[in-house]
Design brief:
Length: about 350
């Protein structure tokens, strides 16, 4: 047989064409042994579905869209790899767009994905385009999952960091070292991510009866420059000099480390430092940063699974709001002498 068809595989495996199709598309209701048999026969004949014909027949593109808000942040690429790995199981491709943290570009990216007839969209949301995203969900009925930021006023499937608890854990760890003058370098509080991480920091202080000093809270952008400028301000402008700093993401923490070097302050001897995220460069910083455990793969995998469920069953209107918890990855920047994972 030079080129097998579904009919050929069905005949050799002794099942219906429908069963073969469902097995090849990874439907969960297929007997495990039957599925293994079908996949082995398909592999033997190097079978690959005609996706163009299939998409025309089913009115599907077999492609999902993914919008990244910050191309410089490794987190979003790790999420992308997890999404791609999950959708590969179902013979789907991914079209990736970039918003560069600009609400207008985000809308243009969404319009492009809609025009390309994506079967579903995963949006690393900036958090401000409620009306347009609602139209995609309600009027166009395109399955959508939002990650990274909750969009105010919108009911949608969500997969987010447990931002409050993560910030609380990191700040609490600094408090347990005996630090009281703890600063916070927060990302934009116009984003739910920035707002919730700041909230977690303040909850930690309050739980230990430590007064919240507004001079020790700096709100900036999510970039290296945000961490750098905020750290310089903390030591040049604040009356109370912080003994420890919680930084809302690891990109900003690089800027903070640079500023502390320029100020001739050693980490952790003079200033302890912890940050959200756990990106690949963390191990190479001097000293290695105490952060949260990695959660990007889990976020991507979870978002992909929810989106695929909704693609299969558009009638399911259940809204899922999932928060991914992460423990501490303790290294040396906090003042711990030994690394613990």
């Amino acid at each position: 047989m030079s080129k097998a068809t579904l009919k050929d595989i069905a005949k050799e495996s002794g099942v219906s064409i429908k069963t073969v199709s469902r097995a090849l598309n990874n439907y969960p209701d297929i007997n495990k042994d039957t599925k293994v048999k079908i996949l082995e026969i398909a592999k033997k004949y190097d079978y690959s579905p005609n996706l163009l014909a299939k998409s025309l027949r089913n009115n599907k593109s077999y492609t999902i869209g993914y919008i990244i808000s910050d191309t410089m942040n490794e987190f979003f690429w790790n999420v992308a790899y997890a999404i791609e790995n999950e959708f590969k199981k179902h013979n789907y491709g991914i079209l990736t767009c970039f918003s560069n943290n600009d609400p207008e570009i985000e809308i243009e990216a969404l319009k492009l994905l809609v025009s390309r007839q994506m079967d579903g969209i995963i949006l690393a949301a900036i958090g401000r385009n409620c009306d347009f995203v609602r139209e995609i969900i309600d009027k166009l009925e395109i399955p959508l999952v939002v990650i990274d930021n909750k969009i105010k006023g919108l009911k949608s499937n969500l997969v987010l960091h447990d931002n409050i608890n993560g910030a609380l854990l990191l700040t609490k760890h600094l408090i347990e070292h005996g630090y009281k003058d703890i600063a916070c370098i927060a990302g934009s509080i116009g984003d739910t991510t920035g707002k919730k991480r700041l909230e977690g920091y303040m909850q930690a202080l309050t739980s230990f009866n430590i007064p919240i000093n507004k001079e020790l809270i700096k709100v900036s952008n999510w970039e290296i420059s945000g961490g750098y400028d905020s750290t310089i301000e903390l030591f040049n402008s604040s009356k109370i000099k912080p003994r420890a700093i919680f930084v809302a993401n690891s990109i900003m923490a690089l800027g903070s480390l640079k500023a502390l070097r320029e100020l001739n302050l050693k980490v952790p001897e003079d200033v302890a430092l912890v940050s959200f995220d756990n990106l690949s460069f963390i191990e190479a910083t001097n000293p290695p940063l105490t952060t949260l455990e990695k959660s990007d793969n889990k976020i991507g995998e979870t978002a992909a699974k929810i989106l695929y469920e909704n693609i299969l069953n558009k009638e399911n209107k259940e809204i899922k709001e999932i928060y991914i918890e992460a423990g501490l990855s303790i290294r040396e920047s906090c003042g711990c002498k030994e690394r613990r994972y």
